[in-house]
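User: Can you help me understand a structure? I only have the sequence.
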Amino acid sequence: MDPLPDFAEPPSSIDGYNCSQPGGFHRLTGAMNAIGTIWILVLMVLINSDVIGRDLFGAPVRGVTEIVSMSIVGIVFMQLADTLHAGRFTRAEVLLGVLQRRSPRLARALQGLYHLVGAALLAVIFWASWEPLIEAFRIGEYVGAVGDFQAPMWPVRMIIVAGSACTALSFLFLAWDDFRAAGTRR
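Assistant: Let's start by predicting it. Here is the structure, written out as tokens:
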């Protein structure tokens, strides 16, 4: 008895997820994902240190709130491209599963369209994030309070720009693979 209904095919059977990308690009996105994961572990230590310091010694770690709020955004953009490459973006696969059985080429073409729309969306995020990055450099933007804790904003803004660019490229590589597969007879 197959545990999956016949309309729910695993993502790798429908599209090019987890395949190598040009120039070993998937290695870059995997490294970014690993850095994001390490970042999460560092945050866990920082948050626990803050709680312990606050409760046991009456001395919280300064800037934890600011660091955590900036880090969440940074972690998401560090891990976004690899999440896409692994086929872990949220999507409804019922239609794709049915199309895969009935018309594999149409399923791949539809998936290619999905990937093109994703690339366009991430290109818009890249474009919208570029000017705030430049402005953060120019004015020395920071979070926190003077004399207490301050952290520059440009590193997180740079991660948003780099992460959106990498994710847009991953979408384009997947779209290329989908349209190429949709154009070949099987």
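Now, to help you interpret it: The chain has one domain: 20-182. Residues 4-12 have pLDDT under 50 and may be disordered. Let me know which part you'd like to focus on.
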